[in-house]
Amino acid sequence: MNVRALAPALAAALLATGLAACTSDSDSDSADAALSLSHVHGLGVDPSDGRLYVATHDGLFTPNAEGEPQLVGDSRDDFMGFTVAGPKTFLASGHPASDDEPPHHGLIASTDAGKTWKTRSLKGEADFHALDVVHNTIYGYDSVSGKLRVSQDGTTWDNRADLRLLDLAVSPDDTNTVLATTEGGIARSTDGGRTFRAGAEPVMAFLSWPKKDALYGVDLNAKLNRSTDGGTSWKPVGQVPGGQSQALTAVSPSHIVVATQDGIYETRDAGKTFTKRLEVSS
Asked: Rounded to the nearest 5°, which phi and psi values hold at 80?
């Protein structure tokens, strides 16, 4: 299927399918995963050294000196939600590779850049498919309960709105403004995620908001868009190569990384040009 040719209504339907399709598959081939990336669920850049990290169905990866994917640590867990919270400090969620553990990680944390992980809370209860850390606050979308959950310390959680979303972004200047990508478009909350207005076009798959005037969204066709007014209006700034989008992170207003069906692409000029960092198996 040529994703670029999808009409808006069909794109919305595909997004709705994506909301329900992020599940664990224990039959994946670990040997193949060592050689290639697939099922990318999250991206992050460590501010301490600028290293790129890719969260996937088969573990956390980073480019080695040859530009090939290298497994971080020895975990082959399915990292569904992933975010860089600070220097060498990562938060994640998902499913353990072993059947001997509960099926959902809850919130896990690493303080050594992903080499090792420890449970913070909600083990066996929550599966965060989207995570964001803004204003020293953790925002997570729990696919088990269908709720946006918010925590100051990663252990005690406040349950907020009940909605179906694929990704979320919190205003870097206003704790009360939270955006969510839904099958109907971008839903907005002005009360910290307790309630949301219905989604409105454009339909985006993923969002990232590093600065007040630099909100980025990538649609299902991997078209990168920027809003300078908090999502009221959007302007396309570049076409990411490689087919359907899988993840997005904006490190700064000019430095953005996007995962698509065939690769991890990076731009350092706000979407004018893209460089392929890693191959992805579609």
From this structure: -80, -50
From first CA to last CA, the distance across the chain in angstroms is 13
Question: Average pLDDT of each block of 10 consecutive residues along the chain (282 residues)?
Answer: 40 55 45 66 98 97 95 95 98 92 95 98 97 97 97 98 97 97 97 97 97 97 97 98 97 98 97 97 80
Instruction: Kindly report each contact of residues 197-202 with a partner whose C-beta sits within 8 Å and lies 24 or more positions away, as own/partner.
Output: 201/8, 202/234
| Entry pTM | 0.90
- SS3 state of residue 221: coil
Q: Are 201 and 193 in contact (CB under 8 A)?
A: no
> Which tokens is 266 given?
């990076």
Name the nearest CA neighbour of 72 among 97, 86, 50, 52: 52
Instruction: Return the closest-CA partner of residue 68 out of 78, 49, 87, 54.
Output: 54
Q: Report the run of H or E that residue 141 belongs to, with start and end.
A: strand 137-142
CA proximity to 41, closest of 118, 122, 105, 124: 105
Looking at residue 127, its amino acid is: D
